[in-house]
Specification:
By secondary structure, chain A is mainly beta. Chain A has one helix and eight strands, in the order E-E-H-E-E-E-E-E-E. Chains A, B: In the C-terminal section; belongs to the PRA-PH family. In the N-terminal section; belongs to the PRA-CH family.
């Protein structure tokens, strides 16, 4: 079936959550949001482009930092309301310069930082 | 720092997205939503409990199907507005009986089903 971005289910703001996963290691790097146009740009360019809710603008990941995400494969969930992006991540995915945004774990009832900045 | 669920950022419906990842293989299984109370139940019981947006009720994963998710570790992202759940998944995570909900891939411009039901 040919892919039609408008066939996905977007929320009341026209957005769909997109999970970025390292294609090689399986590490979950981050979650951000896309609208139909940012998804189109991602597919067309092979560079992951989100929609920034805080800035209300397209967010070509790594545009200013150089920490780009190259799309390896796009996957769609059963309800068509969430995306999984298998990516080739240059450097850190997180703005804190950690590889993943999920660097805080709950252990024995307390928050623990489990990863250091890599750049 | 002791964990306080109310310190997380919930959306205007009081929900936060939660990504479930197989703790052993790294496979991303599904994404669903939690509110503060479902997160509390998840931590307290060790059984992952979401908030069903369609049914507007708590959704103790596997309650009817037996395909439970045991919480191995909870992780929080840098913005405190997304959760990553490392889980021990019994059987399929998806209601289509596939291990993961992300069984549709975009390849050469077309949607391809890349996984079969396992149960």
């Amino acid at each position: 079936m040919a892919f039609d971005p408008s066939s996905l289910k977007y929320d009341d703001k026209g957005l769909i959550p997109a999970i970025a996963q390292d294609h090689a290691t399986g590490e979950v790097l981050m979650m951000a949001w896309m609208n139909a146009e940012s998804l189109q740009r991602t597919i067309k360019t092979g560079r992951v482009t989100y929609w920034s809710r805080s800035r209300q603008s397209f967010w070509a990941k790594g545009e200013s930092s150089g920490h780009v995400q190259r799309l390896i494969e796009l996957r769609i969930d059963c309800d068509r309301d969430c995306l999984l992006l298998l990516v080739d991540q240059t450097g850190p995915a997180c703005h804190t310069m950690r590889r993943s945004c999920f660097y805080t774990a709950l252990r024995d009832g307390a928050e623990v930082v489990i990863a250091d900045p890599i750049a």
